[in-house]
Amino acid sequence: MATADGRRTLADALTGLIAKKAERDGTESVADQVIGEHIGKSRTTVWKLRTGQETNPKVETLEALAQFFGVKVSYFLDDERAAAADQELDSLAAARRLQEAAERNGVKGINARLGSLSPESLLTVAKLIEELGEAEKNE
Question: How remote is the C-alpha of 39 from its chain's centroid?
């Protein structure tokens, strides 16, 4: 739902953040009611922001949303900064998944060695560790 000039909308930005948080913390963590309680707004207001029916929130609302999702307010206003923040969030999610996969399969101290890998590479390594762990369980 980009704007006429191709920029991403507030609804797009919010939807992306919701998807990332839901993947990380579960879908219940991003219910409109939960977000509303954290930012001091009603679930209806959150729904309107998420669906693009409300496009001009107060600065205080953007600040509260930014705090809830762990981004800067500029995430909602600057596509370049949002892209950089998205990449950071993706890297953190991939690193977390890798660490969890490694720990489930008895691998320790892996993060220091993998800090320079891209999010895609981290996910590949995480999947490989998960597959190896499953293969060993089935032996």
Answer: 17
User: 16 with 86: CB under 8 angstroms?
Assistant: yes
Three-state SS string over 49-93 comes to HHHCCCCCCCHHHHHHHHHHHCCCHHHHCCHHHHHHHHHHHHHHH
Q: Are 73 and 63 in contact (CB under 8 A)?
A: yes
Token pair for 105: 């399969």
59-69 vs 43-51: helix crossing angle, rounded to 10: 90
- Tens of pLDDT, residues 70-123: 888 888 887 777 777 777 777 667 777 777 777 776 766 665 566 667 777 877
pTM: 0.62
